[in-house]
Amino acid sequence: MSEVPPTRMNQQVFKGKKKAAESGHKLLKKKADALKVKFRDYAKMIAETKGTMSTDATTAFFSLTQAEYAAGNFKQKVAEGTLTARVRVGAGIDNVAGVKLPVFTIYETGGPADNQSLGLIGGGKKVVQVRERFTVFLSQLIKLASLQTSFVTLDEAMKVTNRRVNALENVTIPKIQNVLDYIDRELDELEREDFTRLKLVQGKKEEVTVNVSDATNKMSKLDINQDKDITATFDAQDDEDVVF
Amino acid sequence: MDVGKLVAVIGDEDTVSGFLLAGVGHRTADSTNFLIVKTDTKLQQVEEAFLNFSQRDDVGIILINQHIANDIRHVLKDYTQTIPTVLEIPSKEHPYDPEQDYIMQRVNMYLGGGN
Amino acid sequence: MSTPKGPHGGLSDFNIHHGFIEALIRGMRCSFLKDADYHHITQCENLEDVKLNLSETDYADAVADMTVLTPSDLQAAAIKKLVTEFKYVRTQAVEPLATFLDFITYEYMIENIMLLLKGALSGRDINELLAQCHPLGMFKDSTMRSIPTFEPNAKGFADLYQTVLVDTPVGPYFAMFLQESSNAMGGEVRNVIEEVEIEIIKSSLIKYWIEDFTQYVEKLGGETAEIMGDLLKVRADTNAINITLNSFGTPLNEPAMRASDRKRLYPAVGHLYPSGTSMLTDVATEEELGRVLSLFPQYASIWGVHAAGSDKSIDDAFYERDVMSLELAFESQMHFGVFYAYVKLKEQEIRNLVWITECILQAQKDEINKFVPVFSFHAPWRASASKAR
Which residues form a coiled coil (chain B) (predicted)? Predict the structure, then answer.
């Protein structure tokens, strides 16, 4: 701060800086609040979705048991043969208060299902049911995955924003304020110096004038004596021209 | 490479079979996107599978049974990437326990902590 | 071994040749869980209690050394128990019953052979695959030992098929299937197995097996031909109906596939064959299937269960009907059907146990009674029969 020359110019500059920092702080604070609201929303949604997920999972797993009862042990066949992912996730981006949140969307290639004929000799309908139940479960999970990534990203973003808010509040703004105070102080000091100097100068001037008047008095006294020679002191330019 | 990322699954036979039926399974000449964890599956295999899935850029989500996640918690703790997202899911025999889920711990901290 | 002439599955000489094992298997009837046992088990709160209850039944030894009971472990142990019993009976059997018993195992062999071929093709560890095979369908020891020695690549695969599996009892079925398919697929074994879905191959093999089995049973003649023949016929019909029903929504239901591929899966035996199956060929929707089945009284009622859309599925209806006819087959005498009935009923019992334990494990108490008990006094057909009396 000491390297800042305490000038009016700099005062102006720093006043500008302070203003910018304060409005920045206000904005960031707003953002932090917005993020916090979102964050709480997400937290709530996660808690809810995780709750429903358990029930979805239960029905999904139970459908598997039902299918096994009807179709025999087909599980070992599921993982056989060629497999091509029919369900994938697309990654999109959601924007919350300037924070980019990754969003997964379920994305079906529309390709044919693998091992379509499972349970052909019996239980095929139940196997179809397993497919459906697990698809529901999966879409639920993909939703949850989005929420969860968003949650983590928001968490991170919130930390950063809060850090910035705090930095502005506790470091940057006080620093600028300090500089401003310093400049003020210095300027005051300068002013005071100026004042005293002026005073001094004035005093001196007054002294001088007093001296001068003394001298003139003396002179005039002297003049009385030398009154005769009035013309001697006469200066034609001293007087305004008298115009008649 | 087609559009869209894969969903990888690490789980017991029931979980994996179910998701394969839902259509997430993908097998190429040299890799699969799922691991069936049985009682005799070595921990190291699970760890390797997880590290492999998490480093593949065609994987968007990793689903893992919670009881298996607990076994490789030390690996999961060090995992900081956002994508692929790791999701802990219940299994048939082990109902979901929110207490053990890192994300849920944070969620509960926020919701429960009043804030 | 000399094969006696004349019908073998009949009254005339049954007891001379097979009386002892028939007695054996009848003695095993008491090993089935009773109504009371089921009642106790379904009341259990956890699997620990189930184990406790089972230790008072015939499953005591099977569950004795389990520290924690899980449905899959229970299933494995129960199957093992069944296999032990079956093997014991098999060692006592003389021809032609021995062949008959072998025929029963072929069904499981088909399952295993599919598992091995498909698994080996996708590069799975063959030892792991062997562990998953159904123990009742295990091949000869020499065959089993040689299977893991093949390399998990294309050449090893071809060798595996050509040198080992062709020689197994189900090899001929496989050869028949390949011959039928190779016209369409260009011949290579590998291609066929790669291209055709495992379930479709299996269905084809099962079809050949049913046909073959029926032929054998008919050759035996006597009571066996009558009772066992009927069981197989019904089984053939069940498969045909199921295949049709389950093909809806899959490529198999496409018009071109219906006549070629789907029709080929219908067994050429059974009550539906030939007029019914030829009608099934053209069926494309559930309504049409219902219309065809309404012509066959014995299936109309089962279809009714499905059409009514209650929580009972067609599979449950088939199971119920199967259990009834198997029980009746088990109770009658002087034929080989008892052995088949025993295995199938035991299978149902194992299915029940798995169902009950799974329900307990997953806390699905509402569903727990949706199984078909074996030799139950509360079975609908028995209950209504005793009421009529």
Answer: none
Using the predicted structure, report yes or no on whether residue A242 has a pLDDT greater than 70. no
Closest CA to C205 of C184, C180, C232: C180
Is domain A8-182 in CATH 1.10.10.10, yes or no? no
Could you state, in order of their start, the residue ranges of all structural domains in chain A?
8-182
Quick check: A23 pLDDT over 50?
A: yes
CA of B64 vs chain A CAs: smallest distance (Å)? 11
What's the confidence (pLDDT) of residue A216? 78
The total of structural domains in chain C comes to 1
Q: Would residue C71 be called left, alpha or beta, if left means φ above 0 and alpha means ψ between -120 and 50 degrees?
A: alpha
Query: Is residue C8 situated within a structural domain?
Result: no
Q: A120, C199 in Cβ contact below 8 A?
A: yes
Q: Is A19 exposed, middle or buried (0-12, 13-18, 19+ CB in 10 A)?
A: exposed
Q: Convert the pLDDT of each residue in C245-264 to its tens digit.
A: 888 877 777 877 777 778 88
Q: Which residue has the higher pLDDT, A146 or A108?
A: A146
In a domain, C1, yes or no: no
pLDDT > 70? residue C4: no
Q: Is residue C270 part of a domain?
A: yes
Cβ atoms of residues A22 and A176 within 8 Å: no
Cβ-based contacts of C239 with chain A (< 8 Å): 121-122
The domain containing residue C306 runs over which residues? 14-388
Of B4, B19, B96, the CB nearest to A107: B4
Domains and CATH numbers, chain B: 6-110 (3.40.50.10580)
Cα(A29)–Cα(A25) distance, rounded to whole angstroms?
6
Residue of C nearest to A55 (CA): C362
CB within 8 Å: A69 and C354: yes
User: How close does chain A come to B30, measured CA to CA in Å?
Assistant: 12
Query: Pick from B16, B60, B110: which is nearest to A91 by CB?
Result: B60
Neighboring chain C residues of A61 at a CB cutoff of 8 Å: 362
